[in-house]
């Protein structure tokens, strides 16, 4: 895409072409005028492109004021054909999403005591606002794994995606689901701290025998904060 100048200046130009003031635009978008004005202020909005959701809303407004839709969508890096050309991180950012690393939790390349010991399979995009509703931890503390086998059925099915918060590494509530390492192997299990100081590693499938880990045998990798299932 050719360099057409800062996106803030281009947005301002298109708004003025449509004959709208900042206040009128903000009212049409149903947001505070100060919130909209920030998108036209290069000191406040420093990204190269508008987020796709914002560009779409602005296009909806300006289209009714004789401003071609594709000119507005170009501010988000979308061509007139509708194609969105971007690398994965840029694309996620434009869609107000974040990319979480997916790890192979069942296979450790080291001691299995930390997420860094497990291989990264791919990156999976998730809505930033949805993730913030799950946990107060930043996205950098979150990662993804998949259910493997039937030991946690019916709670967790084979192939289900789990979102794990490695910012939570202390067992404060009983019977929550965690990514845990035991004997150098990762697993997704329900944990219970016993009065004698040991840790009971439980499976939701009653056919699977619980494991009791003594001090130093098990490591908490992170707490499962969501299960995502394809219907």
Structural features, described:
The chain is elongated. Helices cover 24% and strands 25% of the residues. The longest helix is centred in the first third of the chain and has 11 residues, at 7-17. The chain starts with 6 loop residues before the first helix and ends with a strand. α2 (22-29) crosses α3 (33-39). Strands 3-4-9-5-6-7-8 form a seven-stranded antiparallel sheet, with no helix packed on it. Strands 1-2 form a two-stranded antiparallel ribbon. With 231 residues, it is an alpha+beta fold.
Global mean pLDDT:
85
Radius of gyration: 24 Å
Count of separate DSSP helical elements: 7
Shape: elongated
Multimerization status:
single chain
Task: List the defining traits of the structure above.
231 residues; alpha+beta; 7-stranded antiparallel β-sheet; 7 helices; 25% strand; elongated
Topology:
Layout: H1 7-17, H2 22-29, H3 33-39, H4 52-62, H5 69-73, H6 88-94, E1 97-103, E2 120-127, H7 128-134, E3 142-146, E4 161-165, E5 177-182, E6 185-193, E7 199-202, E8 211-213, E9 218-228
Antiparallel strand pairs: 1-2, 3-4, 4-9, 5-6, 5-9, 6-7, 7-8
Helix pairs in contact: 2-3
Brief overview:
Helices cover 24% and strands 25% of the residues. It is of the alpha+beta class and 231 residues long.
